[in-house]
């Protein structure tokens, strides 16, 4: 039986034809120019990039080995003690620097989405140490219980254990800092001296310093608006010729800048309240 004639198809575009040997490209007759490849690999920028990547991979592998050891010991004993000490030392160093330079507030907001209130001249060095220590303690507990033991950290994510821990510190810092800030605000509120307890000679001091500020109120009322005994003492000493360095030493402040910030903040608040 004869087959029906096949209908002619569209003309073939020669430009779209591909040779049938494209799957395997071999140049057995052309040796590799090893000198050229070596020159490419000797590029300083590439070498630095490769070295950094190799170091990163080694660090991640070391972290994986360390995590396995911690898992085998159920995150207890000497391995955990040694690891937690090193992690705490690293976290404390980072937090102290970030708090003192003021960069931690932007980092915490970028990570958590929440801004943190500020008080000029606070925290001082002692409070910085307390906040940093409390943050690291809270972060270590959470990091062990909620991250490492639940397998939330994976080397495939690209972050080392140290980097991941610092991120957790930022989350914990936000909570620790808010608690410390509330305590400081309460202390300031409770430290306000009643109007009847304000020394008479302090009224004259404030009158001389803030004559233009308290035009609509009595000097005594303005004095009472100063929020802390420390602020009143700072203004008293400044009016009596003490330097800001001397005032800082007397009041236990870290430096003259802290005194300047303290007085400046109080005077701005005074302007707002008496305007």
Structure description:
It is a single chain. This protein is mainly alpha-helical and 275 residues long. The chain folds into two domains: 46-190, no CATH class; 195-274, Arc Repressor Mutant, subunit A (Orthogonal Bundle), CATH 1.10.10. Helices cover 65% and strands 0% of the residues. The protein contains eleven helices and no strands. It has helices at residues 34-41, 44-72, 77-101, 104-112, 125-148, 161-190, 200-209, 219-225, 229-239, 244-251, 256-274. α3 (77-101) crosses α6 (161-190) and α7 packs across α9 (229-239). Mean pLDDT is 75; it is low at 12-18 and 209-220.
How does the SSE layout of this entry go?
Layout: H1 34-41, H2 44-72, H3 77-101, H4 104-112, H5 125-148, H6 161-190, H7 200-209, H8 219-225, H9 229-239, H10 244-251, H11 256-274
Helix pairs in contact: 3-5, 3-6, 4-6, 5-6, 7-8, 7-9, 9-10, 10-11
> Which range does the strand content fall in?
under 5%
- Give me the count of strands: 0
| Class of secondary structure makeup | mainly alpha
- The amount of helix comes to 55-70%
What is the overall number of helices? Answer: 11
Count of spatially separate domains: 2
End-to-end Cα distance, whole Å, is 111 Å
Mean pLDDT: 75
Q: State the shape.
A: elongated
How can the largest sheet be summarized?
Answer: none
The stretches of 5 or more residues where confidence is low (pLDDT under 50) are 12-18, 209-220
Series of H and E elements: HHHHHHHHHHH
Cα Rg: 34 Å
């Amino acid at each position: 039986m004869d087959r029906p004639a096949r209908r002619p198809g569209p003309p073939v575009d020669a430009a779209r034809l591909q040779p049938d040997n494209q799957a395997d490209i071999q140049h057995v007759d052309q040796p590799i120019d090893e000198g050229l490849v070596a020159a490419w690999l000797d590029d300083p920028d590439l070498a630095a990039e490769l070295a950094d990547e190799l170091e990163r991979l080694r660090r991640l592998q070391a972290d994986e080995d360390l995590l396995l050891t911690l898992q085998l010991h159920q995150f207890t004993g000497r391995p955990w003690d040694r690891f937690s000490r090193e992690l705490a030392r690293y976290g404390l160093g980072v937090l102290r620097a970030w708090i003192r330079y003021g960069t931690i507030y932007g980092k915490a907001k970028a990570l958590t989405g929440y801004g943190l209130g500020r008080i000029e001249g606070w925290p001082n060095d002692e409070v910085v140490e307390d906040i940093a220590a409390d943050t690291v303690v809270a972060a270590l507990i959470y990091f062990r219980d909620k991250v490492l033991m639940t397998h939330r950290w994976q080397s495939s994510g690209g972050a080392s254990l140290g980097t991941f821990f610092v991120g957790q510190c930022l989350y914990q810092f936000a909570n620790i800092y808010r608690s410390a800030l509330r305590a400081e605000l309460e202390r300031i509120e409770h430290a306000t001296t009643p109007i009847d307890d304000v020394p008479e000679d302090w009224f004259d001091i404030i009158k001389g310093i803030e004559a233009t500020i308290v035009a609509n109120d009595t000097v005594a009322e303005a004095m009472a608006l100063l929020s802390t005994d420390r602020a009143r003492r700072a203004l008293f000493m400044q009016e009596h010729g003490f330097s800001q360095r001397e005032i800082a030493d007397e009041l236990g402040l870290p430096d003259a800048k802290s005194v300047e910030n303290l007085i400046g903040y109080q005077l701005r608040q005074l302007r707002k309240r008496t305007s």
